[in-house]
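Notebook p. 47: complex prediction with zinc ion.
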Amino acid sequence: MNHRIPFERVNWINTSFLFFITLFAIIGAPVYLFKYDLHWSLWALFGFYMIATGLSITLGYHRLFSHLSFKAKWPIRFLTLVFGACAFENSALHWCSDHRRHHKHTDHDDDPYDISKGFLWAHIGWILFKLDAPRPMDNVKDLRRDALVRFQDRYYILIAFLVGLVLPAVVGYFVMGNWAGALGGFLIVGALRVFLVQQSTFFINSLCHTIGSQPYSTRCSARDSWIMALVTYGEGYHNYHHEFQHDYRNGVKAWNFDPTKWAIVVLHKLGLVSDLRRVATSKIVAAEMREAQRKAEARLAELRENGESICEQTMARVNELLVQLKKNLSEFESSVSESLDASRSTLKRWRRETRELVRGLAELRLATT
Ligand SMILES: [Zn+2]
Ligand SMILES: [Zn+2]
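Predicted complex, structure tokens below:
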């Protein structure tokens, strides 16, 4: 198989960095913890860096800079740029350019982490290989106007190494008073933390386009998964995000696990961020209704084509629910044309009836398998 790897296109800097970080994280860190007791304050620093760098990517790089889903005062932009650099995922300018391209060309050739090229490509492969020609950075002109973004782009590597790896080692040296402390700071707060935050981001590009449901749209491969939300600071509701990318929320339901959304709300209450963008609930419910209708019609057509015999009662119920759903959708269209907002009770009813149709479809599936 080796002859099929295009070695001339390997990005040796990225590949070596990821190789050593992985080595330090999965071998160096456990061996260190087996031999030494890490001071509790370094564990606290590890927790702080995990949250600071993780949120700087999801709240800063992703929802603030890539999607402009809210506005932030300079201290928030500054901190997310500094700690975002410490995740070693490139400068915000390059990250956002790739990410905006991912949304524009999802699942196609121009998508930098196109899942149709395979799971491993979307997860990490795209970072390990060079492109024939660098992608134009013409989609981040707005971000170039921000002096802090330009500064971070220029000094990204220096900030990443100094704050991301050297500083934890220096703190470790002073906390434990010896070189073992410095090594602990470097291995645990530095390398292990970089590895975990990077994998969390990589999962969004790979697993969030592979596992989970598609309640809002099947136009692209993005999926919603609460399990993924747990390991991606709330970014696991990726089907919603691809459908409504400018919403500052990814987990839009009240019970969704979305710590990035909660952090934005807290910063808003503190007056540090403003202009939070939200999609109207009626629009979100309409997307769910359209998707449920599309799935129901496709399933019924499939059954008719295959001539499968199924429980008439279930079939009649699904047909009845589908008729009701179409009525709800036209109710939505007319409320939009009259610029009226649907009432809470109407939204609740639309949601309930959409859920019933989705449940009916699942029963139909069970009855025919
Ligand atoms: Zn995506
Ligand atoms: Zn996005």
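Notes: The longest strand covers residues 71-72. The mean pLDDT is 91.
Next step: compare against the earlier run before touching the bench.
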